[in-house]
């Protein structure tokens, strides 16, 4: 596939770039500066682009098979930038006539029990709440975009650099936790889950939880 990867310079994004490239896909990786560290492959091109600019997204997405995102609000932006980016990505994809999107979402909107979302639990850390709620608002943008074949793939509650084991589980709309109740996934295994979904399209129009 020829994939436009937004947020390729991020912690999760550059791992998704490497997972895509290892599987033989061609990747154009976007960051605001046009610099992407940690990715070195003849099938990779780094380009500059602002993901809040729908026209720029349209220019970059035109003719490609899919758009992938590991976008997150940077420290110099408010968390609402995530919603502006979601709107611009949908608008830009429509303009370009590209209809497949896989988005790195947040775990906050996943259910821990019927009717109870992770973000609404007492244990959810206060400092993560604004970005978790912005990620849920971004999900609402996609929910209204039936013409886009989007998949919203969320990490476990905790995601960190770690091992690439190839093992993971998924659940539609639910937080994935182990038998001790811990919800974790390494960034490397999340990248596998993300690219598996991009290739398979098994979870189109789905909020997918991932974890061990
Ligand atoms: N447990 C969870 O639910 C959980 C945990 C961690 C992360 N996440 C989510 O996963 C996503 C990625 O996380 P991360 O830790 O990899 O983030 P990160 O390292 O901060 O990377 C964010 C990426 O977004 C890009 N970006 C930001 N604003 C942009 C703009 N206006 N135009 C173009 N690119 C822009 C950055 O590029 P430049 O700054 O280089 O331009 C960077 O590549 C986030 O949405 C985050 O909320 C969820």
UniProtKB/TrEMBL annotation:
GO molecular-function terms, A-Z: oxidoreductase activity, acting on the CH-NH group of donors, NAD or NADP as acceptor
Coiled-coil ranges from the UniProt annotation: none
Protein name per UniProt: Epimerase
Domain of life: Archaea
Record Pfam families: NAD_binding_10
Organism: Halorubrum salipaludis
Signal peptide: none
Listed SUPFAM superfamilies: NAD(P)-binding Rossmann-fold domains
InterPro entries: NAD(P)-bd_dom (IPR016040), NAD(P)-bd_dom_sf (IPR036291), Polyketide_Oxido-like (IPR051606)
Stretches assigned to the NAD(P)-binding domain: 7-198
